[in-house]
Design goal:
By secondary structure, the chain is α+β, with helices and mostly antiparallel strands. It has 9 helices and 4 strands; from the N terminus they run βαβαββααααααα. A 4-stranded mixed β-sheet has the order 2-1-3-4, covered by helices on one side. Strand 1, helix 1 and strand 2 form a beta-alpha-beta unit. The chain is globular, with a radius of gyration of 17 Å. It holds the Pfam family GST_N_2. InterPro entries: Glutathione-S-Trfase_C_sf (IPR036282), Glutathione_S-Trfase (IPR040079), Glutathione_S-Trfase_N (IPR004045), Thioredoxin-like_sf (IPR036249). This is Glutathione S-transferase family protein.
């Protein structure tokens, strides 16, 4: 099979890059990753050479280009059905996709106020009510999913749905957004997964600083 190449941004900051990278890595899909760092505020012109949107992540598979995190995950799930990126049960798979779409299109207040930052020292900041509304909804998803599956992940084993929420796990930790024991247990399961640890290790070695993401 033609090699898969996933182009990503700074591993310290790029939440949308983390999502497909983590899904592929955790589920054993073979791929190469290439980091192209952000160059704020103008953006990195190299992105235009690899992505029709001028953004990352983008997956190259021969002549095929797939952009947007969830589209990349869906494409790879079709290529590697044996990898189990989604739950096997159709009903659970539908819920997993619903959660993932909710993350894709929602929680804008949280994402805007609390950028993903793997290097950030844990410290709370003052947050408006709409951010805490996002936090409450996310914790409801985690609580209901883990209760239904038995955990430790949303659908028992690690799936693409967990990958979609992984940047939020970082946000909850470094901005000290929860003290809920159930949420902390789920966060710990994600943080100690070997794939997440591998990304974080690479992120902590980066030296690029993006002031816009240093909340």
């Amino acid at each position: 099979m033609t090699k898969l190449t996933l182009y990503v941004g700074n591993k310290n900051y790029s939440s949308w890059s983390l999502r497909p990278w983590l899904a592929l890595e955790a589920c054993g899909v073979p791929f190469e990753d290439v980091v192209i760092p952000f160059d704020f505020p103008a953006g990195n012109p190299k992105f235009r050479d690899i992505s029709p949107t001028g953004r990352v992540p983008v997956l190259h598979h021969g002549d095929i280009r797939v952009w947007e995190s969830l589209a990349i995950i869906e494409y790879v799930a079709e290529l590697f059905p044996q990898a189990g990126l989604w739950p096997e049960d159709p009903a659970e798979r539908a819920v997993a996709r619903s959660y993932s779409m909710e993350m894709l299109s929602g929680f804008r207040a949280l994402r805007g106020a609390c950028p993903m930052n793997m290097r950030r020292e844990k410290r709370a900041i003052n947050l408006p009510n709409d951010v805490m509304g996002d936090v409450e909804r996310i914790e409801t998803i985690w609580r209901e999913a883990v209760a239904r599956s038995g955990g430790p992940f949303l659908f028992g084993r690690f799936t693409a749905a967990d990958a979609m929420f992984a940047p939020v796990v970082n946000r909850f930790e470094v901005y000290d957004l929860t003290r809920n024991p159930g949420s902390l247990a789920y966060m710990d399961a994600v943080k100690t997964h070997p794939a997440f640890a591998k990304w974080q290790e690479a992120a902590l070695k980066e030296t690029w600083i993006v002031p816009e993401d240093e909340a």
